[in-house]
Amino acid sequence: MSKKKPKNVIVIGAGIAGLSVAIRLQNAGFKVEVFESNNYPGGKLTDFSKKGYRFDMGPSLFTMPQFIEELFSISKKNIKDYFSYKKKETACHYFFKDGTTFEAKSDVQKFAKTAAKTFNVDENQLLHYFGRSKKKYELTSTLFLEKSLHKFSTYFTKDTIKAIFNINSLDINSTLHDYNTKSFKDPRLVQLFDRFATYNGSSPYQTPGIMSIIPHLEQHYGTFFPTGGMHSITQSIYQLALDLGVKFHFNSKVDKIHISNRKAIGISSNDKDFFSDIVISNSDVVPTYRTLLKDQKSPEKTLRQPRSSSALIFYWGIRKEFPSLDLHNIFFSEDYNQEFKYIFKKQQVYNDPTVYVNITSKENKSDAPKGCENWFVMVNVPSNTGQDWDSIINNVRSNILEKLSFSLSVNLEDLIEFETVLDPRLIESKTNSYQGALYGASSNNKFAAFLRHPNFSQQISNLYFCGGSVHPGGGIPLCLLSGKIVSDLILKNI
């Protein structure tokens, strides 16, 4: 008896979610091909090198490594042959406008002890906050992060019933800022916990209080630094996919998803047709419908959801080492909440923004020439709706240089020997992310999770969706989970 021919799967986009689902389905016996418009994998999680400096271009925080480890485990491969990382003792270093500095320890007990002294707050009050965050996560993770929210079977489980009975403890009817204000008196501490709204590109004034689960993920699971920088995450799982037999087509922009009798049957790319049993889009859901499925009825209410924030990033080669900046994750804080009022209410860039600096050469000396540092300098900005970005870039650059020069007691501009900029326009063109939004739709209301596009088409069979623009959301851990959700859905349907 001949073996059953494996089903063919086409994945559109070699982002982290696309790599995740490709690895899972290849392991399950499918024949997987990935089509990517760029000449490299990883989507936003990539890097570049120039004049002796190497920069990670996309996400700069590595948490919940268990989701990457799982890909190697199910593939029966030793992760040490592909990827390594180390846990950081300090997650971030904060510089506040009033001169306060705070070293945020990764260990929750150490964090609480240090924060109690810095912000004059009871240590147990902080531990109580983290305890409530943990409870929220444990009540909702299987429902909101690990399963499709758009399948009835998800709601008929013990975990879902337990979450419903504890709904009042989830703080879904208050904003994250209101919840933090009730939890802490010191506005600096409120600001610190409000910033976790940025982990999904939302506003602390609008996103619900349940988002206080995010600090738990950082403190409970820890923060890590991959050997070789964040781009090594992409390199390792891409190599794993290759070793498993996944086929990649780079410089292969997909022009259309073919539909026949309400079923996805393949794609067109580079003037050729490729047929398959299953099609998975790892492309942003908006251009997927507007371009690849333009002949099909689109879910307009979903596609018109407000976008998450984007980013304006300056990559600077700095001709100096700063011994005082002994951490590579640094926040120079201003009126963070005022910044988000501008971003989400006026679609404008706040003139005096909070600045996030990542210096990977603190960990990887080879990322910069000797005696120099590579600075990834980011501010949160609105998604691209036609703003005058050239003017914005000039103004923001001046403000950032003034702020950092004052904080570090140095004329920083004189030390910059290399510079390039990434703005929402380039993010949109390079990654096909609608309006350059980093996380698809924002999570600025309590129903946002349910309004995200599902991981499958409700109108077209054999068509699935993964990545930051669909459930469960953006960021490395959630993109990896979206690949897992899609894989599980497909395996249940065959």
Task: Walk me through what this model shows.
Helix content is 35%, strand content 20%. It is α/β, with parallel strands linked by helices and 494 residues long. The chain folds into three domains: 8-43 and 62-85 and 228-304 and 446-493, FAD/NAD(P)-binding domain (3-Layer(bba) Sandwich); 108-221, no CATH class; 309-382 and 385-422, Alpha-Beta Plaits (2-Layer Sandwich). The strands form five sheets. A seven-stranded mixed β-sheet has the order 8-7-16-17-18-15-19. Helix 1 (16-27) runs parallel beside helix 9 (231-244) and helix 3 (108-119) crosses helix 4. It is globular, with a radius of gyration of 22 Å.
Brief write-up:
This protein has 494 residues and is α/β, with parallel strands linked by helices. It contains 16 helices and 20 strands.
Supply the CATH architecture of the largest domain.
3-Layer(bba) Sandwich
Overall outline = globular
Mean pLDDT, to the nearest integer, reads: 90
Q: What portion of the residues fall into strands of 2 or more residues?
A: 15-25%
Q: Spatial order of the strands in the main sheet?
A: 8-7-16-17-18-15-19
Largest sheet: 7 strands, mixed
As a whole number of angstroms, the C-alpha radius of gyration is 22 Å
Helix residue percentage: 25-40%
Q: What's the CATH topology name of the largest domain?
A: FAD/NAD(P)-binding domain
Name the poorly predicted regions. none
Task: Give me the secondary-structure category.
Answer: alpha/beta
Instruction: Give the distance, in angstroms, between the N- and C-terminal Cα atoms.
Output: 21 Å
CATH homologous superfamily identity of the largest domain: FAD/NAD(P)-binding domain
Number of domains: 3
Total strands: the figure is 20
CATH class of the largest domain: Alpha Beta
The number of helices is 16
